[in-house]
């Protein structure tokens, strides 16, 4: 034994490296057939795989210019990070964007900006920007709701996001009077931190699921009765990143906690089918909306990504005929995010937000129904100028998902589907989510929303208005090369936005249905 140990001890450090490389080469040539490159080019072939794996980071840090990356470029991410930290989010020396570029958005400023009269609510609270419409007001629901913030958190479940991230988000919305959409995974304890909640369910009916995987009204009623923070219910028809795509939640991921929240069995695969069991036609969908509203008293809405319009037209016709219908409609853009989706879906199925929203809004405007509905938009709208365009097209609120994630530390690593999110936001790894300082991150989310609202109000005032609901299609121009060819939204999308009834900001503040707990004093 001793001579062998002596021999091994006499091998220099570089000898060990050579032995290791020799073993790798033997494995590459004789024992593995899965990778052709490392078989044909033993040892050095591994460099290719390694460089490929660090390529995205290298491009992000060193190569891509400030406006190049997708889904969100460095300038957009930087604006969210700085706004969330209440740091200087200005840029010096003028814009670095090519403002002659195709599709560039111009907000038409007034010759003289809107001047706030003495005692105006926004003098004391420059962040106060509630929704101009009351959700459920038209349909006379028992518990109508006016969102106290025009920017809110879009559907993202506990499961796709970590417990720490969901907690930080819910505490954050409580601090800035916004609402938090639960996403498809049910209402978790992390959603119950004090913020207003919109309960969202899809084809899996998680949290309101009967034993046979159907929708259970009894469970929904109990959930709503026990949780007064729930201000509305959203039925998911589809989302922009994967419309019409079901999913499987693998049994291995179903812990006791997730099983309890979602109402499924521990360790057993759960299927989210691509279609709903609770309805299979537009009249049945309308019936479900009405019965949920009747049983819970809450406003009820639907969320969809847009492709064909025939069923939307059928819904609008039926709403006109019956006088009933959803209290809110969330339109998601094809550019929307997801925890995980096949690229063929994310890249190609459903229209981008502006095309989808304009087509659907027109369907309801043509039938004189827009005043009944609160329109919510989502799809990279969490930037004030983009929101101005969305409001000019007819939205009443926006929902943000990935922008909210970034405000609490997401670095756009784009690995949500792997459970290895380095920022601890989109992972179930206890170790990775320990990095999230919940109180700090909740402040950041609240500050991002507040900064957004303040800047959006400033743009609104520059355009001569008091509230963004007053934006018309003629206030925004999209660049299509020469100024003569640039067109305002009305000419491009060929409809007129219905005027939103609006008296004053004070009037919105005094509304008994106002959510959150906004106060009109100077807030930091
Ligand atoms: C991690 C993650 C999870 C999501 N989960 C859901 C979901 O459960 N239900 C849903 O309708 N949309 C879901 N979405 C889509 C978002 O709610 C939103 O519609 C979309 O990302 C567009 O908003 P954004 O551009 O601000 O991210 C998810 C998005 C992300 C990034």
From TrEMBL:
Keyword Transmembrane part of the UniProt annotation: yes
Record's keyword terms, sorted: Membrane, Transmembrane, Transmembrane helix
Lineage: Bacteria, Pseudomonadati, Bacteroidota, Flavobacteriia, Flavobacteriales
Protein name: FMN-binding glutamate synthase family protein
GO molecular function annotations of the record: glutamate synthase activity
PANTHER family found in the cross-reference section: ARCHAEAL-TYPE GLUTAMATE SYNTHASE [NADPH] (PTHR43819)
Record-stated family: Belongs to the glutamate synthase family.
Highest taxon of source: Bacteria
Alphabetical list of Pfam families matching this protein: Glu_synthase (PF01645)
GO biological process: glutamate biosynthetic process
Record keyword Magnesium present: no
């Amino acid at each position: 034994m001793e001579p062998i140990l002596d021999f091994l001890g006499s091998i220099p450090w570089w000898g060990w490296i050579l032995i290791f490389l020799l073993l790798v080469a033997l494995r590459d040539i004789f024992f593995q057939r899965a990778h052709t490159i490392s078989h044909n080019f033993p040892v050095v072939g591994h460099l290719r795989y390694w460089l490929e794996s660090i390529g995205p980071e290298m491009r992000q840090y060193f190569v891509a210019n400030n406006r190049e990356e997708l889904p969100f470029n460095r300038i957009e991410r930087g604006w969210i990070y700085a706004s969330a930290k209440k740091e200087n989010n200005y840029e010096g020396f003028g814009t670095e964007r090519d403002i002659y570029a195709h599709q560039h958005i111009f907000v038409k400023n007034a010759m003289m900006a809107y001047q706030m009269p003495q005692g105006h609510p926004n003098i004391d609270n420059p962040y106060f920007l509630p929704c101009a419409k009351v959700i459920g007001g038209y349909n006379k629901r028992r518990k109508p709701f006016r969102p106290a913030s025009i920017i809110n958190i879009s559907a993202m479940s506990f499961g796709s996001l970590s417990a720490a991230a969901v907690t930080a988000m819910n505490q954050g919305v409580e601090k800035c009077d916004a609402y938090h959409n639960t996403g498809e995974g049910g209402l978790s304890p992390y959603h119950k931190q004090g913020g207003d909640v919109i309960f969202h369910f899809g084809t899996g009916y998680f949290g309101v699921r009967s034993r046979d995987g159907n929708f259970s009204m009894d469970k929904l009623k109990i959930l709503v009765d026990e949780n007064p923070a729930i201000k509305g219910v959203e039925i998911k028809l589809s989302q922009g990143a994967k419309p019409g795509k079901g999913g499987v939640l693998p049994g291995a991921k179903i812990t006791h906690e997730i099983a309890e929240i979602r109402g499924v069995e521990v360790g057993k695969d759960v299927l989210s089918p691509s279609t709903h069991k609770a309805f299979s036609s537009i009249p049945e969908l309308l019936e479900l909306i009405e019965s949920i509203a009747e049983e819970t008293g809450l406003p009820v809405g639907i969320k969809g990504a847009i492709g064909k319009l025939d069923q939307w037209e059928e819904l609008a016709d039926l709403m006109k005929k019956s006088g009933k219908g959803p209290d809110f409609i969330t339109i998601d853009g094809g550019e929307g995010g997801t925890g995980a989706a096949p690229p063929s879906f994310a890249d190609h199925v459903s229209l981008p937000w502006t095309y989808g929203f304009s087509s659907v809004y027109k369907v309801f405007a043509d039938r004189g129904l827009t005043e009944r509905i609160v329109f919510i938009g989502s799809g990279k709208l969490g930037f004030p100028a983009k929101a101005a365009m969305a409001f000019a097209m007819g939205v009443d609120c926006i929902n943000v998902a990935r922008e909210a994630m970034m405000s609490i530390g997401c670095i756009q690593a784009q690995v949500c589907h792997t459970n290895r999110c380095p920022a601890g936001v989109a992972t179930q790894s206890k170790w990775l989510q320990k990095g999230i300082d919940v109180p700090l991150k909740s402040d950041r989310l609240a500050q991002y929303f507040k900064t957004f609202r303040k800047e959006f109000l400033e743009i609104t005032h520059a355009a001569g208005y008091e509230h963004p609901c007053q934006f018309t299609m003629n206030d925004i121009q999209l660049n299509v090369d020469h100024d003569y060819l640039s067109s305002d939204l009305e000419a491009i999308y060929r409809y007129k936005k219905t005027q939103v009834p609006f008296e004053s900001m004070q009037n919105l503040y005094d509304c008994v249905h106002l959510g959150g707990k906004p106060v009109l004093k100077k807030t930091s």
